[in-house]
Amino acid sequence: MHPINTFKRLIRAWLNRRRVQLSLALRxxxxxxxxxxxxxxxxxxxxxxxxxxxxxxxQVSVGGSLKATIxxxxxTLGGAIYGGTIAVLVAHPAEWExxxxxxxxxxxxxxxxxxxxxxxVAPVTAIIVLLVPSITHATPVASxxxxxxxxxxxxxxxxxxxxxxxxxRAYVQAADAAARTLDHMxxxxxxxxxxxxRGLNTSELHRIQDGIGQSLVHLSAIxxxxxxERAARIASEPDTAxxxxxxxxxxxxxxxxxxxxxxxxxxxxxxxxRSPLEHAGGAIADFLGATGQALxxxxxxxxxxAVEASLDAYSAEITALRREGLTHALSxxxxxxxxxxxxxxxxxxxxxxxxxxxxxxxxxxxxxxx
Length: 370
What we know:
- The chain is an all-alpha fold.
- 79% of the residues lie in helices and 0% in strands.
- The chain has helices spanning 3-17, 19-42, 47-57, 62-89, 95-115, 122-136, 140-164, 170-195, 202-209, 212-231, 241-260, 270-297, 305-323, 332-362.
């Protein structure tokens, strides 16, 4: 392959991987420049705050930008009203009085911000309203009004840029995050069942399942932004909470399987369990990966026939082992892990049904003919 073509291919691949980040960088840049132009056109005293607000509220997703804009405007309005009121009541404080007034202004707002992080900008606004008049020689009321106007210009500019310029919907990001989590779960399940025959130590369990928890935290944050889009009628997709709850339950199933995998099954049972476990693990992992891809593409998930058949075969083998009395000789610890593994698979069966239902709700097209 020609070096130039190879270089172009690598550049295209890098651009595709960084598409979300590049789009965000472009939106932030445009929001900053446009907010400065609007602030100068409106004759605002300190265009700096309009620009900073536009940069702060421009988030990765539209839902994130909407939430940041509302939070910033609420915090600014509250801080401006409170700080402006104190500044008016004590119009010309002495230098030592200003210290006390600043404490009176900041302390309650800082407590409110600590209780409700959505209002964390309120103390900053109060400080600006109190101190900027001494620099610009404006009245406290004018300082408060200017601050609110600057934030309104920056907030609305940032939000409109997020909607109009290469918009990134939180629902699309949530579907992609859920798909990555399902892929990771499928790989983890295969690794857990592969290591079951010899037993897995704690470090191996952490390595296998490392990252699933972080993926779920990331998905939870994106889901919150998606719900802001839905509440504002920006998006009409289904509620993200059922999907998130289902993935959390599947995560718990993997934890149970991991605990059971710390010790290998008794040698007498291993030949009987090896094949059913391999088939069940493979079928479930394939279903998780295919369902994740269906979420990405907004298509219907695959049928669970292979999963149900493999789990039925595993349950039948467990029943046969118990009927033959082969489980009676197990130690208490071995019996506990043996039955915990069977219970985890039954729980996973139910959770996979819920996952299928969630994926169907997310599908943006009618059910395919089978």
